[in-house]
Design a protein that fits this description.
Layout (H helix, E strand, L loop, with lengths): L16 H31 L7 E6 L5 E14 L8 E7 L3 H4 L3 E5 L5 E3 L5 E5 L5 E10 L5 E2 L5 H42 L3 H32 L2 E6 L5 E5 L3 E5 L6 H17 L2 E2 L4 E2 L2 H32 L4 H13 L4 H24 L14 H25 L3 H9 L4 H30 L4 H4 L26 H11 L3 H36 L6
Antiparallel strand pairs: 1-2, 1-5, 2-3, 3-4, 6-7, 6-11, 7-8, 7-9, 9-10, 12-13
Helix pairs in contact: 1-14, 3-4, 6-9, 6-11, 8-9, 9-11, 10-11, 11-14, 13-14
């Protein structure tokens, strides 16, 4: 007979299941919150680039006179009414023409609107200043001549050609002023500094070279002035919905299109073009217009440089604490200090970076090697190098803790087998422990990159700026300028949301920039994750 298990009274196999379901519910709530946040950011961020139609609203003004307003519908909402009255529905429209209406947005009460229409000839003009303009084209003028009327069949091709030529001249002016003239001015400044401490005979030669460069500077400045004058020779005359006539120089027009004449494929093409321009262009109009390429580039370079700085120091510190340091009260205190550093507010690291890296280290380098340039600092000022070092110091505890945990997880038998075969301790660490711990080390690097890429507070003190004139990496010697100011996506979001003069115009840009910051962090983390998985498969035998 087979033995039967005794029945146990009072024990239920479902005991504890409510707690299991509670944890599952917590996980579900967390995932729903993250998904909802991403959905809001994606919907609001992507919607910025989709071309919207221009609607003409007809309504009476305060005196009862009939007025017409052209604008792009942004949103509909209920306006808070007085006590005892029903809320009033209103719509927010983007009217553009900031120089005419003072603000680019306007609210209209729905019950006051008498009619709505989509004018086929409505033209949306993207400009360098004052935001977009919305109106009906009248003519393309050259100087004071009547020019080409909008009714002419060749008007659209003529306008497109004029804008294309103006864009080419704008690129030439930009290259001339920021590269050729900028390089000339930098050479003049360098020679003037060298002339201060040069011998008398050498000083005369330097002054002659400076005079030649200044003459060249005047010629280049005159050429830039001539090109700018040509930019303003042609202009586009257009009419607002109110009947007022306005004129915009062709040189200040970036792009144009007729939004109410676009089909789905044309709108999708315009969407892709807007998306590319946002990623590839520089910001303008107090960062409320244009693109975010300098901010993307600065964030990527700063995060990559931070990772290259924090990895060796964090790994070496963890190996010493775990493998070489004698375990005792001092080591325990160091570990407690490292763990506490992980909870220090980031602004504290920013203050330390400003005081130690910028003022002390950078100031010492200036006094030792660039004394002839003082009081203007060369290295003792905020830059992308000091910012990367500050964030590397901030994320160092994360890498140290992750590396220690990864080193401890390596099986003891693998170490003893290596030592038994005659390998030294360092050879064992180098060839057995570190390869097996690389996945765990990269996990710490992923966490460090994710935190470093999104930090803003310390960067505001050690190098980030609202608008950087040039990139920290270019083709000019020494190619990588560690002492140069840079732009950052996180600070760009802060500037748009809290420092913009037109908060309504900046709100869509906030969502779009946030979306690209999340995408950049995902790309950086995904690259580290793929590398970690590849190394894990490669060194899988190290765990046996």
């Amino acid at each position: 007979m087979s033995a039967q298990l005794p029945k146990t009274k009072g024990i239920h196999h479902t005991k504890g299941e409510p707690l299991v379901w509670l944890t599952a519910m917590g996980l579900t709530i967390g995932l729903v919150m993250v998904a909802s946040l991403l959905l809001v950011i994606i919907s609001q961020g992507v919607g910025v680039f989709w071309p919207k139609r221009v609607t003409r609203f007809v309504l009476p003004d305060e005196s009862g006179k009939r007025i017409e307003v052209d604008g792009v519908v942004v949103k509909r909402q209920l306006k808070t009414a007085e006590a005892g009255k029903a809320p009033i529905e209103e719509i927010q429209i983007y009217t553009g023409n900031r120089e005419v209406y003072s603000l680019a947005f306007r609210y209209l009460d729905v019950h006051r609107i008498t009619s709505e229409s989509l004018p086929a000839d409505a033209l949306l003009i993207e400009r360098l200043e004052n935001g977009n303009a919305i109106g009906t084209p009248i003519s393309l003028k050259t100087g004071s001549s009547t020019g080409l009327p909008a009714e002419d069949p060749s008007f659209r091709s003529g306008l497109a050609k004029a804008i294309e030529e103006a864009s080419a001249r704008r690129s030439a002016i930009d290259h001339l002023e920021k590269h050729v003239i900028g390089r000339n001015a930098a050479e003049i400044s360098e020679l003037e500094v060298r002339a201060k401490s040069a011998a008398p005979d050498r000083q005369q030669a330097l002054e002659a070279d400076i005079a030649t460069l200044k003459t060249r500077y005047q010629e280049l400045a005159a050429e830039a002035k001539r090109l700018r004058k040509v930019q303003n020779e042609q202009s586009l005359e257009y009419r607002l919905a109110s009947g007022e006539t306005r004129t915009v120089a062709i040189g200040s027009i970036i792009d144009h299109h007729y939004p109410n004449q676009l089909g789905f494929l044309s709108r999708f093409g315009r969407f892709c073009e807007n998306l590319w321009n946002f990623v590839s262009e520089r910001p303008r109009e107090a960062n409320t217009e244009g693109g975010i390429f300098p901010a993307i580039f600065g964030t990527f370079v700063m995060t990559l440089l931070m990772s290259l700085l924090v990895a060796p120091f964090g790994v070496l510190a963890a190996i010493y604490l775990r493998e070489y340091a004698k375990q005792g009260p001092i080591v325990r205190m160091v570990r407690i200090a490292v763990n506490n550093l992980a909870g220090v507010p980031s602004i504290v690291f920013g203050v330390f970076g400003l005081g130690f890296f910028v003022y002390f280290v950078g100031g010492s380098i200036d006094r030792a090697f660039f004394s002839q340039c003082l009081p203007n600092p060369t290295v003792g000022t905020g830059g992308i190098g000091w910012a990367a070092m500050t964030l590397a110091l901030m994320t160092l505890p994360v890498v140290i803790v992750a590396t220690e945990e990864a080193v401890v997880a390596v099986p003891r038998g693998a170490r003893e087998g290596s030592l038994a075969c005659g390998a030294s301790k360092w050879q064992t660490i180098q060839r057995i422990v570190l390869p097996a711990a690389v996945p765990g080390i990269l996990t710490g690097m992923i966490l460090a990159m994710a935190r470093g890429a999104g930090e803003v507070a310390p960067l505001m003190l050690v190098g980030v700026v609202k608008l950087a004139p040039s990139l920290p990496l270019d083709l000019e010697y020494p190619f990588f300028h560690l002492n140069q100011k840079f732009m950052h996506l996180g600070f760009h979001i802060y500037d748009l949301g809290f420092q913009s003069p037109d908060s309504e115009a900046a709100r869509p840009m906030v969502f779009a920039t946030t979306l690209f910051l999340i995408l950049l962090v995902i790309v950086l983390n995904l690259g580290a994750i793929l590398l970690r998985e590849r190394l894990r498969r490669r060194f899988a035998t190290a765990a046996f």
